[in-house]
Every structure is written in C-alpha cells, then in structure tokens.
C-alpha cells in the first residue's frame, strides 16, 4: 500500500529524505500518544486511584495497591512484545504500530468513564486492572515497531539521531500527562478533581489517538522489512529462533534498560508525586508542574544523547549516562526532602541528565544488536523484559521500603543497585555503530555482539549502507 505522500520505497532502495522526515514525525507522534496514555494512568495512580478504587484497604496499603496496578501491566508487556515480535517479523512493522495505538487509546478512554469502588464495589478495581493490562500489552508491542521504523529508515551515520525521535515521545508524553493533570487541578480544585477532573485527561486520549492513527497510516513499511518480504525470507517462528540463538543477548540488553527504567519510574510511575504530596505535604499542582519541567529537560537530554551516540558511540554514551544517573540518584532525596518546590524541581531535572543519556541511544543500539530476521522480536522482548526487571514495581518497592524503614536513603540504595545492573549490561555488549542492517548481512549481524567475542569478528564502524 502506498502512502498518500508518494509511492512506496522499492525494496533495497535508499529511502528519500522526505520519507525519512515523515517517518521521524510519525514515530514521535505515535510514541507520544502511547506514552501519554500510559503516564496518565501512573500519575492518577499516585494521586487519586488509591482513594477512588482501593480506599477500603486503608490509606497506606491503598497507595501500594494503586502502584501495584502500575507494575502489573509490565508483566503483560512481554506478551505484547512476543505477539508484536511474531507479527512484526512476519508481516511488517507498520500494521503492528497501528494496532497497538488503537488498543492503547481504547483502554485509556474506558478508564476515563470507569465507575469507582463507591459505585460498583470490587468490580471497579477489577475493571481498572483489566484495562491496565491492555495498556501493558499495547506498550509491549509499540516500542519495538516504532524504533525499527525510525532506525531502519535512517542513514547509518545518523541512526542515533533518528532513533532518538521515538525516544523523545516518552518525555513528551510525560510532559503532556503532567501538564494535563496540573491544568485539571487548577480547573477542578479539591473534591472536584477527585470527582471529574482526573477523568478528562483519559477521555482526551480519543483526540490524540485519531491524530496518531492518521499520521501512522501515511507511513510506508520499513525498507529493511520490505527487502526481507521481497526476498521471502521472513522467519516462520521468530521468537523461538531468537531464544535458541540469542538468549544471552536478550538478557544483557534487558539489563541495559532495567537500570534506566527503574529510576525513571520514580516520576513516570507516580512515586515522587505521591511522596511529595502525601508524605511531605506539598500541594498537588506545583508538584505536577515540577514534573512537567523535568520532562522538558529529559526530552532535551534524550535528543542530545541520540546525536552524541552517532559521534562517540552508543556504549560510551551509556557509560557516561549511568555514572551521571548514579549521581542524580544520590542527589534526589536530599533535595526532595527539603520540601522546597524549587529544590524538588532541581532534583528531578538533575535526574533527567542521566536518564536522557541512558535512553536516547537505545533505539539505535538495540536495532544494531539484533540480526534482521529476528530484529522486531529481539528489540521488543528485550525492552519488555527490561521494563519488568526495572520499572514494573519500582514505585511499589520504593513505597514499601519507605514505609518499612522510614528512610528515603534506603530507596536511594535500591535505585543505585538498579543503576549498577544497567551499567553491567552495558559493559557486556559491544558497540556496533554503523553495521549494515540489511538482510544480506545477516551473518555479520550475528557475530561480534559480546565483549568476549573475537574482535576480528566485530562489525566495521565505517559502513555507510542502510
């Protein structure tokens, strides 16, 4: 099918600049919509869901239960990744992206009209959990397709920059989600926010989904997959093939993401918002605006990191990023615990430096790590497992640590441990910047992955072929 913007790029041909710009725009819009939906839930979990859906459990346990619903969705991300990987490696990236966008939007919109526990009893948290699971399945399939579209369309020397485009959709989604919640807090103060204000951002998802669907339908299939399809080389069972040949790679790549994700979900998972408002007594609106400001800096550093990785390498960028992320963790709670809003905002902004540097290059590095025949499966499943190990339950774990020990310092130790996991994963993998991604280069793509591989088998860093 040809896009309205022009004829499809022939298999094996170099994509046009206009095609690349269209794909970059589409991946930003699509991931922004997906993650706006995902983060609206996490923000509401930290601010209102404990009272509205889990109140009979008591205030403290209701908060933990609310955060657990954030984490349980991560357990279904691998299912979404398995399904998306299978269909993406067999039938293409584009069809998967359209489906995940619709699934996410439908689940989010339905949460906006969901009755509370006071209205329908235990059915309310049960339905909330079901819709969150659907969000998790969608998120598990979304990311892999988006990054492959961006990176496989990119020229080899700018994959980091193009790969950063779907990555910046995440902080933009957080920005929109936090800003929407903050605006609703202004328009619906006090009990009005609990009754109706929180619902409007969920219902607004309908508009965003319509825009995202229109944009994604205008994008052609990835030229790499088009070549695979033209050569009739789709893998019949990509997921079993992936684990039979590349299980260590999947695990190490998951570790790379786990450290970033655990720390990032201190804000995207709603923990800092809840800690600042319920624990420190700060007002909800200013805290949300502080999170919004930090999402802007996260966006900037994510984009810069993608560009930087094209010049100094993905692995080097990550190593610098994890050192800075550890420093950000050490500064986080000492600044937040002052209960001063400017220092809270400063803490979150400092944290985003390391978060951006350990997120911006991920699209390009993941894409270059996996051979073309199992690339969608490998990228999606590694990301999903990393999310389970990292951010899935980090807000709930942090809440439990805080309530059990009464010390935020112990939460910092937990986060530093997760940063170390990410650093170890980074050290175990090679930088494969510039490797030829086409299916004709499958043999080279399968070698030179780990640090113990013979260096003579590592890919050339000077390839200019897409």
From TrEMBL:
This is MFS transporter. It is a multi-pass membrane protein. It comes from the Bacteria. InterPro entries: MFS (IPR011701), MFS_dom (IPR020846), MFS_trans_sf (IPR036259), Sugar_transporter_CS (IPR005829). It is found in: Cell membrane. The chain crosses the membrane at residues 23-41, 61-83, 95-114, 161-184, 196-215, 242-267, 287-309, 316-335, 341-360, 381-401, 413-429. Residues 23-434 form the Major facilitator superfamily (MFS) profile domain. The keyword Cell membrane applies. Keywords: Cell membrane, Membrane, Transmembrane, Transmembrane helix, Transport. Its main location: membrane. It comes from Georgenia alba.
């Amino acid at each position: 099918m040809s896009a309205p913007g022009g004829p499809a790029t022939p298999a094996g041909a170099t994509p046009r600049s206009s095609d690349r710009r269209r794909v970059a725009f589409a991946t930003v819009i699509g991931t922004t919509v997906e993650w706006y939906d995902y983060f609206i839930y996490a923000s509401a979990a930290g601010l209102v869901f404990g009272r509205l859906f889990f109140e009979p459990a008591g205030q403290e346990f209701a908060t933990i239960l609310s955060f657990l619903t954030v984490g349980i969705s991560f357990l279904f991300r691998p299912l979404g990744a398995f399904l998306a990987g299978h269909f993406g490696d067999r039938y293409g990236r584009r069809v998967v992206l359209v489906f995940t966008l619709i699934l996410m939007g439908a689940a989010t919109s339905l949460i906006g009209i969901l009755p509370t526990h006071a209205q329908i009893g235990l059915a309310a948290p049960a339905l909330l959990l079901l819709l969150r699971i659907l969000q998790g399945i969608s998120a598990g399939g979304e990311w892999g397709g988006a990054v492959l579209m961006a990176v496989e369309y990119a020229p080899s020397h700018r994959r980091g920059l193009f790969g950063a485009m779907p990555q910046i959709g995440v902080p933009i989604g957080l920005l929109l989600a936090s800003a929407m919640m903050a605006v609703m807090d202004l328009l619906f103060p006090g009990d009005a926010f609990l009754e109706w204000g929180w619902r409007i951002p969920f219902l607004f998802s309908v508009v965003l989904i319509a825009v995202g669907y229109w944009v994604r339908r205008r994008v052609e299939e990835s030229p790499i997959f088009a070549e695979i399809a033209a050569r009739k080389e789709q893998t019949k069972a990509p997921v079993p093939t992936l684990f039979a040949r590349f299980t260590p790679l999947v695990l190490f790549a998951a570790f790379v993401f786990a450290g970033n994700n655990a720390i990032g979900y201190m804000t995207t998972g709603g923990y800092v918002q809840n800690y600042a408002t319920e624990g420190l007594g700060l007002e909800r609106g200013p805290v949300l605006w502080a999170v919004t400001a930090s999402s802007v800096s996260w966006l900037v550093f994510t984009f810069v990191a993608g560009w930087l990785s094209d010049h100094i390498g993905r692995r080097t960028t990550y190593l610098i990023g994890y050192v800075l992320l550890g420093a950000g963790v050490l500064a986080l709670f000492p600044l937040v615990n002052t209960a001063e809003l400017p220092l809270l905002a400063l803490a979150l902004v400092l944290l985003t430096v390391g978060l951006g540097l350990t997120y911006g290059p991920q699209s390009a590095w993941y894409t270059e790590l996996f051979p073309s025949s199992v690339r969608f499966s490998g990228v999606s499943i590694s990301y999903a497992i990393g999310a389970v190990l990292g951010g899935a339950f980090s807000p709930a774990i942090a809440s439990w640590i805080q309530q059990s020990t009464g010390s935020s310092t112990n939460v910092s130790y937990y986060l530093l441990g997760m940063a170390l996991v990410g650093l170890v994963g980074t050290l175990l993998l090679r930088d494969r910047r510039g490797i030829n991604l086409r299916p004709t280069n499958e043999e080279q793509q399968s070698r030179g992955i780990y640090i113990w591989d013979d260096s003579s088998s590592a890919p050339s860093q000077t390839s200019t072929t897409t």
